Automatic annotation (TrEMBL):
Keywords: DNA-binding, Sigma factor, Transcription, Transcription regulation. InterPro entries: RNA_pol_sigma-70-like (IPR039425), RNA_pol_sigma-70_dom (IPR014284), RNA_pol_sigma70_r2 (IPR007627), RNA_pol_sigma70_r4_t2 (IPR013249), RNA_pol_sigma_r2 (IPR013325), RNA_pol_sigma_r3/r4-like (IPR013324), WH-like_DNA-bd_sf (IPR036388). The keyword DNA-binding applies. One of its GO terms (molecular function) is sigma factor activity. It comes from Marininema mesophilum. Signal peptide: none annotated. Residues 120-171 form the RNA polymerase sigma factor 70 region 4 type domain. This is RNA polymerase sigma-70 factor, ECF subfamily. Residues 20-84 form the RNA polymerase sigma-70 region domain. PANTHER family: RNA POLYMERASE ECF-TYPE SIGMA FACTO, RNA POLYMERASE SIGMA FACTOR HI_1459-RELATED.
Length: 178
């Protein structure tokens, strides 16, 4: 161990000790936000972990409690937002993705057939596991870039690409069986 790492390590350990002093306070806030013990414990742990990771961004003149409270409420809001990604708009996305003149040039039979196909695709996407469904929806129906999906879901860009690949593969396999 070099001497250069020692001061940083002791500062980090000191900061972690300060975070641990606020564990009870954080739990009470987390419980008020989540309404149950397990989710509150998870949120508290995630907040402490995130605060420890971002310790270099903490300004020591400011209240640590206020900083932690803000971090926790933001994390809670982000989690709620992610969970609320709904597929209700899928059908609208299909309709909007169709060029306006296309419906006029197709026969009634073709329109019905296309509508049935869209319903089938929608059903298959809804049956995908959540981790795959959300990236498909954001990429193909909301038009998000890989970077935007990565930021929205708080996952690495490489994971976004992997999940999209697997989701498309699953859909392809499902349609090839029909």
């Amino acid at each position: 161990m070099s001497l250069e790492n020692t001061p940083r390590k002791s500062i980090t350990d000191e900061f972690l000790a300060r975070l641990e002093q606020h564990r009870r306070y954080l739990y009470h806030i987390a419980y008020r936000l989540t309404g149950n013990t397990e989710d509150a414990k998870d949120l508290m742990q995630e907040t402490i972990w995130q605060a420890h990771r971002k310790s270099n961004k903490y300004v020591y003149e400011k209240s640590l409690k206020a900083w932690l409270r803000t971090m926790m409420t933001n994390r809670f809001r982000d989690q709620k937002r992610k969970k609320s990604l709904k597929l209700v708009a899928l059908e609208d996305a299909f309709i909007q993705s169709e060029p306006p003149h296309a419906a006029q040039t197709k026969s009634v039979e073709e329109q019905v057939e296309q509508r049935m196909m869209m319903e089938q695709v929608k059903d298959e996407i809804c049956d995908l596991p959540d981790i795959y469904r959300r990236v498909i929806v954001l990429r193909h129906f909301k038009g998000y870039s890989y970077t935007e999906i990565s930021e929205a879901l708080d996952i690495p860009e490489g994971t976004v690409k992997t999940q999209l690949f697997r989701a498309r593969k699953m859909l392809k396999e499902r349609f090839s069986k029909k």
